[in-house]
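Dataset card, provenance and construction

Sequences and ligand SMILES were collected as paired inputs. For each pair, a complete structure of the chain with the small molecule in place was predicted and serialized as structure tokens. The example below shows a pair involving magnesium ion. Curators did not alter the output after generation; any descriptive sentences attached to a record were derived from the structure itself.
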Amino acid sequence: MSASLDVRDLRKQFAAGRPAVDGVSFHVPAGEIVVLLGPSGCGKTTTLRCIAGLEHPTAGRVSIGGRLMSAPLDGVQVPPRLRNIGMVFQSYAVWPHMTVRQNVAYPLRHRREPRVEIERKTGDVLELVGLTEFAERPVVSLSGGQMQRVALARSLVYQPQLLLLDEPLSNLDAQLRLRLRDDLRRIIKQTGVTALYVTHDQAEAVVLGDRIGVMRDGKLLQMAPADEIYNRPADLFVANFTGASNLLAGRVLARNDEFGTVEAGGQRLTALMPANVKTGEAVKIAVRPENVRLGKDGTVEPDNRFTARIAGRRYQGTQTIYELAMLGGRLEALELGTQARYVIGSEVDVVLPPALCWAYPASEDARLD
Ligand SMILES: Nc1ncnc2c1ncn2[C@@H]1O[C@H](COP(=O)(O)OP(=O)(O)O)[C@@H](O)[C@H]1O
Ligand SMILES: [Mg+2]
């Protein structure tokens, strides 16, 4: 049975200094896939290991299926083997001297399940991960992607209530990674198991997760469905980490509900702004290159129409990146298609859709890596 996961004010301090996990709280309802996304060292693995019981948290609570598993301040620490969790790691954790089938059956043999049950469950899960025809092969004869499927099958075969995956695709080459990425979501959803998946790869997070939690320096900055992370990033780090690489300096002239007017390079633009941004404050406006609209392509956006000079152009075959001089700074714009329509030095009409321009306190910029 798949179970809910609840993490409250989780803290893990290894030594003096900044905690590896610093007050993380989130809830995963049964059957949901949540991805923790963030740069290396932000505390993803430590969070996962605390949930698995492999790490003793310093403070906070971890509950699985409503049962308290870790609560150090109350002296609760249920050992990993009693948590009924499946785990898949970056390295291929398979038994090298066994066949594929023996690897997958191992957890059931270890639990002394009846032979017919072992055969049935092993057969089902091999089918699920697409390894039926490889069942009798030595596991070491498989490719990296297939070995990771074995590891996944082995962690699903005993029907854990929660599946934890720690960058399971990062040792695979690009093509295998894409194939297994798309398959993973289908496989996990088919079993219905609750899953927590850790990665530093945004594309993986978007494809796999029902929701994404962005982490930085041990803290969970925002947890939301992918489209919300991409369209309403809570702060400049989330915007930047998910690809809003353009930053323009400006100052807030006026606020109007969730939007505001910003002065940038002597011109005015309308931008979304979080509640903590004040009138008169220096801001950085983040815009994704994909959201900069070039030319008069029938857009009826009344606000944020500008003229820019094409200062640079990088033709990439199926797309072109333009560098635009505008609003007192430089903005990159992405044009899809094999034909680059604009030449360096020319003037181009530009629309920056207000809902896709996000103004954050300029002080957050200094803290970007
Ligand atoms: N066993 C450990 N002892 C001391 N410090 C650790 C240990 N494990 C992780 N850390 C530190 O905790 C921080 C978070 O690490 P980790 O959870 O592995 O991050 P991520 O998985 O996001 O890359 C890092 O600064 C790392 O150096
Ligand atoms: Mg890690």
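Derived descriptions for this record:
The chain has two domains: 5-231, 244-367.
The chain is about 25% helix and 35% strand.
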